[in-house]
């Protein structure tokens, strides 16, 4: 019997399975939805990066454009480009759990900020000072390089969620 338990433990370890009480046992709580019969999705927010809402518009010289949809598309492209690692951190935001996401080792929030499709929300990073500094540096580079929304006028995503709009959105 003891030999069977040892062999079972070795087999589980070789397969990478988590044993009770390990990190894999930590529950993830959030609003879930079914993608199909055996696939469930839970929405969560990126820690420290506030991307433009999918319905949000921004303005350049030629008029308003769907910057929020472009932010969503950029996120989707990055997620499709490789394997994502999701590390849950902090409390919920807007009713969703908060996470740091990396794709092939690259911080998704930092990349969205660097491309001009998100702004830093460093007040939510708390003890992650190095990450906050990287996010601010990425923001300054996007701003000076006029990347993404920095090529024109935009409303901060947090203010936009509270109802503030560009003139072209109020028509």
TrEMBL record:
SMART domains noted in UniProt: SNc
InterPro entries noted in UniProt: SNase_OB-fold_sf, Staphylococal_nuclease_OB-fold
Domain called TNase-like: residue spans: 26-152
Protein name: Thermonuclease family protein
Source organism of this protein record: Sphingomonas corticis
């Amino acid at each position: 019997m003891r030999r069977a338990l040892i062999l079972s433990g070795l087999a589980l370890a070789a397969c990478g399975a988590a044993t009770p009480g390990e990190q894999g046992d930590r529950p993830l709580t959030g609003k879930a939805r079914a993608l199909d019969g055996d696939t469930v999705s839970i929405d969560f927010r990126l820690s420290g990066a506030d991307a433009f809402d999918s319905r949000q518009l921004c303005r350049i010289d030629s008029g308003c454009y769907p910057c929020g949809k472009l932010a969503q598309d950029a996120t989707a492209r990055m997620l499709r480009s490789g394997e994502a690692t999701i590390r849950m951190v902090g409390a919920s935001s807007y009713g969703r759990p908060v996470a740091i996401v990396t794709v092939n080792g690259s911080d998704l929030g930092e990349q969205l900020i660097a491309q001009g499709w998100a702004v830093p929300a460093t007040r939510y990073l708390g003890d992650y000072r190095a990450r906050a500094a990287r996010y601010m540096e990425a923001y300054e580079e996007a701003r000076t390089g006029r990347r993404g929304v920095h090529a024109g006028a935009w409303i901060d995503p947090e203010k936009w969620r509270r109802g503030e709009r560009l003139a072209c959105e109020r028509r």
